[in-house]
């Protein structure tokens, strides 16, 4: 069974590997000359079809939770990796499993259409273009995996007077580094991750101040929590089982513990888990130092400035940066289900279209999880390839449509109504949903009775992707060890200097002193 894979970022590489694991024949088409997708940094900004990180981008998820389930990041890698190391990890993954030989580089896909006998064959006619020669050809494939992501078509909002503005307007899609923006008066519109990253970086170079405009405000998470522990290493199955109101309260308290969102002009009206989080460590100090000033939504542009909805006006603006997200688009898909309305597309578990006669086309990575992307796209690929080879069956059409409508209703009820949240998913819940379809979700009831210590590690400890390699199809012998040694890999990159051990006698003196102070406090205040 020949499978066409479109794109060779993290989704494409996971697709290749899972096809191999399930005895399929993958052929991956990559428009550029290298693997890595979004993480393959390019100075070139000519193409609107290629997403790319900033030069300074550091990933927002720590290495242990962003690893593929059978390939942990090297222990010497930092917990939060610079984009160059993320790209290196992806290339190490490709080398470890010998994936590159299945990739056709400098090759794009211009059309994917059903064959005339699709109802019986499930095959696809794929139009392929050689980016170097311009030659076009067609090939027939038994299945297609779309791995182009959702960071290709910038969303460009319109504001009154925008066309008359004489300064420069740029979307973060085209932003790479701060050089060339020195001594400029800058407004950044949008407070998502890209908007805040651009703001804190440009704030060091802008003339006096940079204005960050936000419609609703945002809850801002820092990467590290108490004692320097990566925030996502505190996420586990136990906490995820709490009711939504309690998880909201815990997250909001955690955010305000770092800095008071109301005092900093950032507190939104919505709850913390009603919008995708913004992750940034520098924003509080940039606001405190005055290099970033928070402003409300833009009301209108003038030739030289911007008026905000609170009536304030900033003149002599040189640059406006639009950090306004992306529109979902699949320009090479001509099927009716690929039509996007309101940035919504109806797919069963964000992957399959229910009305296809044969489930031989899958969209990988078209979701926004509260967590790392790599494990999510990998588990999608593990499921999809088993559907392709017939080992797993999808539910009937009506069941899939009911599930889609329930999901859409749930999203509409919980999340702020923006185009960004149409593909939002809770990380652990979604991973478990797909794992059940494959048969790889651990049996925690059985684990509790047979191995209670390991049960505690998996339920009360860090939720790790290696859990989904413990049992069922595609088990990995190293999964248990990877789970049990996670903290060794977490501490390895920071323990680069031997710290002198504390004298036990000195430590005991502090204990005695603490007890003495406690007794005095009890006597005087009771």
Automatic annotation (TrEMBL):
Signal peptide: none
Membrane topology, from the record: Single-pass membrane protein
SUPFAM superfamilies: FAD/NAD(P)-binding domain
Presence of keyword Oxidoreductase: yes
UniProt-listed Enzyme Commission number(s): 1.-.-.-
GO terms assigned for molecular function: flavin adenine dinucleotide binding; N,N-dimethylaniline monooxygenase activity; NAD(P)H oxidase H2O2-forming activity; NADP binding; trimethylamine monooxygenase activity
Main location: endoplasmic reticulum
A GO BP entry: lipid metabolic process
Keyword line: Endoplasmic reticulum, FAD, Flavoprotein, Lipid metabolism, Membrane, Methylation, Microsome, Monooxygenase, NADP, Oxidoreductase, Phosphoprotein, Transmembrane, Transmembrane helix
Top EC class, one word: oxidoreductase
Record localization: Endoplasmic reticulum membrane; Microsome membrane
Pfam families: FMO-like (PF00743)
Chain segments annotated as transmembrane: 507-525
Gene3D superfamilies for the chain: FAD/NAD(P)-binding domain
Reported cofactor(s): FAD
Gene Ontology cellular component terms for the protein in this record: endoplasmic reticulum membrane
Family named by the database record: Belongs to the FMO family.
Protein's job: Acts as a Baeyer-Villiger monooxygenase on a broad range of substrates. Catalyzes the insertion of an oxygen atom into a carbon-carbon bond adjacent to a carbonyl, which converts ketones to esters. Active on diverse carbonyl compounds, whereas soft nucleophiles are mostly non- or poorly reactive. In contrast with other forms of FMO it is non- or poorly active on 'classical' substrates such as drugs, pesticides, and dietary components containing soft nucleophilic heteroatoms. Able to oxidize drug molecules bearing a carbonyl group on an aliphatic chain, such as nabumetone and pentoxifylline.
Name of the protein in its database record: Flavin-containing monooxygenase
Organism lineage: Eukaryota, Metazoa, Echinodermata, Eleutherozoa, Echinozoa
